[in-house]
Amino acid sequence: MAYPLTMPSGQPGLRQIGKAQRARLLGQKPCVIWLTGLSAAGKSSIASGLQSALFDRGLHCYLLDGDTVRLGLSRDLGYTDAERQEHIRRVGELARLFVDAGLIVLVALISPFRTERNSVRALFEPGEFIEVFVNTPLTVCEQRDPKGLYRRARAGQVPLFTGIDSPYEVPEQPEVMLPASEIGIDDCVARLIDFLQRQGNIPVRDEP
To answer: 39, 48, 111, 166: which is the annotated catalytic residue?
Structure first.
């Protein structure tokens, strides 16, 4: 459930600065763009490309990659269902703080379970959580396998690996679906930019 982050000043005459004021200052409508999909689906590459595109437009954003967060904030967690759920919860709360700061937050995280993704959605105000399904088939992800994780999972060396012996629950109604095995990174980024412009999160820029 979304709860207020800005505390009342408690003293008359003190100016309250909240999300709305920060958003006006930055000239954008803050949100979290939550990219979910299998390992090697292209989530991090798309998120990185989108971050560059937003930065080039003078917009303020921050990328939270699931693997990077595990090196610090979630370094005490493993890969059981319960630990994955806690990892997702932590990333969701962190993203919420960045949104309150007026930023556009990009999250690249497998986040395999619908219940946990919906729990994160509930942290935000309507329209702030944008679920992006990076729809790359398992066969394609296994062919890519840049870290050799699928090969090791098939050999029984990586237990509870999403898509092999742990389920991935496909989003039922994502705001955006990207067929990342059929179109390139640039096209995926262009579709997300178009969505954000149509939703009013970022200003429309006249292309040369």
So the answer is: 111
Half-sphere exposure of 174 (CA within 13 A, CB side): 21
Q: How far apart are CA 127 and CA 9, in angstroms?
A: 27
Alpha carbons 137 and 119: distance in angstroms, whole number: 25
Phi, psi of 189 (to 5 degrees): -60, -40
- Domains of the chain and any CATH numbers: 33-199 (3.40.50.300)
Mind listing the pLDDT tens digit for each residue in 88-145?
999 999 999 999 999 999 999 999 999 999 999 999 999 999 999 999 999 999 999 9
Let me know if 52 is a catalytic residue: no
* DSSP SS3 for 108: strand
Read off the pTM: 0.88
